[in-house]
Amino acid sequence: STLVVIEAISIAMNSRFHRFIYQWPLTHYVLGIAILLFLTAFYSIAGAFNPGSAPWYFDSDREFQGMVLMLITMPAYIAICYVKGTRRSREIAASVDEANGTELADTVINYPIRLSLTFGFVGFLYAVLFNIPSFGLNFLSVDNTEKATIIGQVMVWTIMGVFLPVRCRIAYAFNRASQSVPIDIFEPGNLRPFAQIGLVDVLIISGALVISTVQSLDFAFRPDNYSKALVIALPAIFYLAIYPMWRLHQRMVNIRQVQLEELNIRIKAASKDIDIDHINQLEILLQRRERVLAVSTWPVDITIVQRFLLYIVIPPLAWIGAALVELMIDGFIG
User: Fold this and answer.
1) How far is Cα 108 from Cα 90, in angstroms, rounded to an integer?
2) pLDDT in tens, 197-211
3) Spatial separation of the C-alpha atoms in residues 305 and 174, rounded to whole Å
4) pTM for this structure?
5) Which single residue of 32, 122, 269, 323 could bond 221 by disulfide (Cβ 3.0 to 4.6 Å)?
6) Are the beta carbons of 226 and 209 closer than 8 angstroms?
7) What is the dihedral of CA 244, 245, 247, 250, to 10 degrees?
8) How far is CA 177 from CA 63, 120, 170, in A?
């Protein structure tokens, strides 16, 4: 009976969690604001906003405060993206399920907890090995402000370690589902969701890179502040944008190649005399071949391409803007 009670409690908790994440319209607002308030209070108590509180390895208080702001806003942003991204992914998956009889929507919302914890630990190790100064590893010997900074770095990368694999698994699920989706290379409208799911992830990563520019609060552009993030972000963008539709691309290439081979055989066998019927038949075959050659083997249209490019360009523009502001201020002061 005890096991039955525990199981009933577990089911009830899972149901409430499901409603909170996927149904309640205010989830992302409440979650984001709660994290912002908690982290702001945490860093305030640690003295991170006090004048002269910056650790010695920061050039100025404003540089340190920019880092603190990033450590406050990034976890909230990731939490909001988890909720909004998962809901949007579920909507896209449901549209694929409705059109093709797949079961993508269930895959989107079912993610193994053990896998999350495993990659969360990987994120923790990445923070410790590459984002915390070596002297900071002696956690007990540093002051409260440095301890808060170390905790913030570990928190950001651990959360990122949990979040990115969730998005990668969704991309993998779309890739697997694409092998059973019917393809018409001339009318690929039913394939657009496999490109749209990548747009969600590119936008999320681009937003995170833009938020990272708050580290330049003192108007000094430091490439090292972004290099460690780019090591993760660039491969993630490539994988999350391309992999969901990669198998579709391969299938579309094969279908186009088969049609071209068949058309070439028929063109080669067609009569080349000047009889009007033979000319018309040959022209039809030649026009058909040109149309097949012109067909895209990616399930994207111009709108999707434009949005991809826009999302990718936004972070560099933000960084360039930070660098230009630094140059303008230096020129004004100089």
Assistant:
1) 6
2) 999 999 999 889 888
3) 19
4) 0.83
5) 323
6) yes
7) -160
8) 46, 27, 11
